[in-house]
Amino acid sequence: MVKPQISGKAAPVSFRGVSKKFGKDVVAVDNIDLEVQAGKLVTLLGPSGCGKTTTLRMIAGLEIASSGKILIGDKDVTLLPATDRDVSMVFQSYALFPHMTVLENVAYGLGFSGFPKDEARERALAGLDLVGLSGYDNRLPSELSGGQQQRVAVARALVLEPQVLLFDEPLSNLDAKLRRQVREDIRAIQQDLGLTVVYVTHDQEEALAVSDEIVVMRNASIAQIGTPRQLYDAPVDRFVADFIGEANIIPCQIETRDGDTARIAIEGYRYDLPSRGLPVGPASMAVRPSRILLGVKNGFDATIAKATYVGIRMEYTLETAFGSMFAVQEDVYHPLQVGQAVKVGFAETGPVLIPGG
Amino acid sequence: MRTATTEQTTHPVLIFWIIAGWVGFCILPWYGVEDGFFRFGWLFEGYPFDEDYAPGAFLIAQGRKLWLAPMLLALAAPLLVLKRRKTDPVFAVVLILSGALGFGWLIAQGFGIGIRGFNFAWLTALFGDLGDRQFGMGYGAMILASAFLFLFTQGIAARGAINGDVFVVSAIGGVIVIVGTFVFFPIAKMLTAAFITEDGGYSVGIFAAKFFDDRLWGLGCLWGARCGVAWNSLFLAILVGLLSTALGLVFALVVTRSGFRYKRALRALTVLPIITPPFVIGLALILMFGLSGSVTRFVADLLGVQPTRWLYGLPGLLIAQTLAFTPIAFLVLIGVVEGVSPSMEEAAQTLRANKWQTFRTVSLPLMRPGLANAFLLGFIESMADFGNPLVLGGNFDVLSTEIFFAIVGAQYDQGRAAVLAVVLLAFTLSAFYAQRAWLGKKSYTTVTGKGDAGVHPLMPRGLSIPVFALAAIWGGFTVIVYIMIFYGSIVELWGVNNTLTFKHYLTAFSVKLGDNGLLWTGAAWDSFWTTIYIAAVAAPLTAAVGLITAYLLTRQTFAGKNAFEFGTMLSFAIPGTVIGVSYILAFNVPPIEITGTGIILVISFIFRNMPVGVRAGIASMSQLDKSLDESSLTLGANSWQTFRRVILPLLRPAILAALVYSFVRAMTAISAVIFLVSAQYDMATSYIIGRVENNDYGLAIAYSTTLIFVMLAAVGLLQVVVGKTQIGRRTQFTAGG
């Protein structure tokens, strides 16, 4: 007998002008357009209440869109209920059925997909094998650790070979160390099987680590879509800059523009960076805390307001003429003192101008 | 892999109901069979041509009852869309139309044509005299009505309601129709009966005359005469509500806020009202304080005073009902007192409040909604109580018994019974409404205890002394009352001949070994087995209806859900006497003609006890995380499969509880039952009341004691079984995170 292989049947997902309203005037998702390519892992990222989970649930069919169109593959599934969609989901709470064994849990969906019992069992075992849980098939979910339960939930979703696999904050119930491990496992399986995965999280580091593409959401609409690098290096606005990694938003003056390069000035400190199409005049820029240099010759004035030792680096809060800033320095052996005056400059790369302020 | 059902062109559920409809119309007898629901003698008595037993199709073929014919069209139409897709608009429209028209016509002809031809003068005027008549509907009509209903709901689902979920739409439709038929229809019928004059017309005047009757609203007691029944009921209910709440709080404080050792024994108190037939407390009081009661005679001998009948009337009722309903308040208040977060109280203490100040300024205010809830429950129970007033009322008339006497007594005045029932219903519904409006939401929230590691502080000393004293007195009294019940059942003739004897048990429950095996010669066996039989039939149905309703309420959102919830919980607030009267008025005539059968008893139990099932279901379903359902749905199960494979197995304890409680409540019920029993179907409680009325206390008490023990066994069995399942479940959930 040939051992069944779990394979992917990845399909793209697209949202065309989709909105979701709850009741009369609560708009959870407001007219979004979104393309998820087949075989990619796309993360929906945003603060709580931004509509990311609602978007995910609309892909699953657990919420039906109020308007707009949702396509999976080339099929319009807008009005199709969850039961009839070829999508499976891994829940934040795992939602393992406590009265069924691990194997019964994993085989549950296969039974409804028309597999004969033997094959369903074989496939479920193959699924457990894939997540590294062979031998656990007769246990109850309560007899597994949190991480193992997590993997059962993944196996249960995987064995159906769904067109799209959804993850709703899958790591939030795990402790910090396990998180890194599990997210790497998820990413590895996704890439091995070429699955289309939509992943919801509010943890930007997790999003950066696992995604092919990140969709940053804010107030029921999409703020920016891009690869982790694009979002980090070229945020479209203040919100994205601040949400993906931390950023200091600093007011500045664009003095001259030379093609794609702009020269900005902050209190007489000059710095060159990509202009991103902005005209000469007042502007804002986003600077990551790690891209700030302290104690340089050329720079603007600041005072150390707070200095915190966190082991692998020093964290400083700076007072400047235009407000406070946050900086981190690798050098923990020569900390700056509170009250000390320093010159502040920027590293060669990193700081970006923010369009639209 | 998954094939979407929306694209299939075969619809198994649809095919099932179409076939069911045809079976109902062409094979099963259309009209009700007189012999009984489960008797099949009709198969050999002229079926299928005899008019009494013929299916609808045969009647039409013989040229009779031609008004049944239009339903054929509604039944045939769905066949045309069998091969269409579910998303096709025609599919939905045809199903909705045929379902609605078929159902509507079935109802309309049922009400339009009765045992004397047309029921309404204008129909006769329009079509001339019918020259034919029909009786109550039977199997055929029932099945066909269900078929039409579910064709209709499938049509609605196909149009996209509730995401096109056939199971959920059908369940909602089913619950609405049965609750409408067996709760709202009889109540409406009763309301109209209140306006019917003696010659059959309708008049507001007659209602007003009966409504403003002095016997109802008179205030004579203010100057020494007698007060109206409505005032009596109201006054009694308020007193009982207050007293039982106060005593319930006392017991709850002892259990949760004191170092009292025997808390479990106190908790067992809460089982008492469940297993005690309502009038038994009254009987025990008579044994103690009645004219020949032991206490009365003892005091009379001691002080040389003449024994009086002081017990009969307000004092006796007050004591009996407070005894009966304090455990209910206790049950409610345990939850409330435990629900006050210990961290709040600890916070108050760290803010330098002493124990008494903490109790007064934090604990008590937080319990306020619970106290109001307990009061309203006591109020409703007292209003609805029928057994105690019947036994102990004396000259102190209350609404529930007045209704009974208006119907069965010499006066036989349906109109007056209806008016009294309306007043009673208005009182209980107002209380019910108040309870839901202010506090309804709170009763479902469960205390998880998560993140609240604190410990409840003990009661302040100044409070604990009176609380313990009260609890001891009342608890002792309760124990004595129950001992009296048992003792009374083995005494020859109470107060006259105090020799011990098992005579009463023998009269009631003797068996003889006859030629053909056991002979149940005892007087009580008939009603005993009937009670067990009816209760056993009603229990699973009650649990099923209750759990499905609970599922809809906790797991689904749909338009009008609040009204749906109110409607299903309403029957909790409808006193049994009102149900009894309204069932008699509604189901004595076609189209639903079931008085005098066992069915009407079963149905009355289902809808009287449905809220118990709903509450049990809601309580345990809200502890199951919704993501369990959702993950099942995304794994390809539909909502029915999810309900059956995920929800039901996890609800096993709730199902068992609902089963046992509806069984036990069906055994102890008296108020509705006493209107609905017949010679063939006599129930234990009504038999006992009959014995009491004949002053045959010994037998009545012996029978009651037996019932108490039977039910104690049932509840005990439940505790054992459910206790085990719950432990198994709990561990799974805690580890499951």
Q: Could you please describe the fold and organization of this structure?
A:
The complex is a heterodimer of chains A (357) and B (737). With 357 residues, chain A is an alpha+beta fold. Chain A has eight helices and 20 strands. In chain A, a hairpin with a 2-residue loop joins strand 11 (248-258) and strand 12. Chain A starts with 12 loop residues before the first strand and ends with a strand. In chain A, 43% of the residues are buried. Chain B has three domains: 9-159, no CATH class; 215-446 and 453-488, MetI-like fold; 517-736, MetI-like fold (Orthogonal Bundle). Chain B contains 32 helices and six strands. A two-stranded antiparallel ribbon of chain B has the order 1-2. In chain B, strands 3-4 form a two-stranded antiparallel ribbon. In chain B, strand 5 (512-514) and strand 6 form a beta hairpin. Mean pLDDT of chain B is 82; it is low at 442-452 and 726-737. The interface between A and B is large, with 43 and 37 residues.
User: How many DSSP E strands of chain A?
Assistant: 20
Name of the CATH superfamily of the largest domain in chain A: P-loop containing nucleotide triphosphate hydrolases
> Tell me, what is the CATH class of the largest domain in chain A?
Alpha Beta
Number of helices of chain B: 32
What integer value in Å does the Rg of chain A equal?
A: 24 Å
Tell me the overall shape of chain B.
globular
What fold name stands as the CATH topology of the largest domain in chain B?
MetI-like fold
- Count of DSSP strands of chain B: 6
Number of helices of chain A: 8
Low-confidence stretches of chain A: none
How many domains, in number, for the residues of chain B? 3
Count of the separate structural domains of chain A: 2
Residue share in β-strands of chain A:
35-45%
- What class would the helix/strand composition of chain A place it in? alpha+beta
Question: What is the fold's blueprint, element by element?
Answer:
The complex is a heterodimer of chains A (357) and B (737).
Chain A: E1 13-22, E2 26-36, E3 41-45, H1 52-60, E4 67-72, E5 75-76, E6 87-90, H2 102-112, H3 117-130, H4 146-158, E7 164-168, H5 176-193, E8 197-201, H6 204-210, E9 213-218, E10 221-226, H7 228-233, H8 238-243, E11 248-258, E12 261-266, E13 269-274, E14 281-287, E15 292-294, E16 300-309, E17 314-320, E18 323-329, E19 341-346, E20 352-354
Parallel strand pairs in A: 3-8, 3-9, 6-7, 7-8
Antiparallel strand pairs in A: 1-2, 1-4, 4-5, 9-10, 11-12, 11-14, 12-13, 14-20, 15-19, 16-17, 16-19, 17-18
Helix pairs in contact in A: 2-3, 2-4, 3-4
Chain B: H1 12-26, H2 56-61, H3 70-80, H4 89-112, E1 113-114, E2 117-118, H5 121-127, H6 139-158, H7 166-193, H8 204-211, H9 214-217, H10 229-256, H11 263-268, H12 272-275, H13 280-289, H14 294-303, H15 314-339, H16 342-350, H17 355-384, H18 387-392, H19 399-408, H20 414-439, H21 461-488, E3 491-493, E4 497-500, H22 503-509, E5 512-514, E6 517-519, H23 525-555, H24 561-570, H25 576-586, H26 598-621, H27 626-634, H28 639-650, H29 652-668, H30 673-676, H31 684-693, H32 697-736
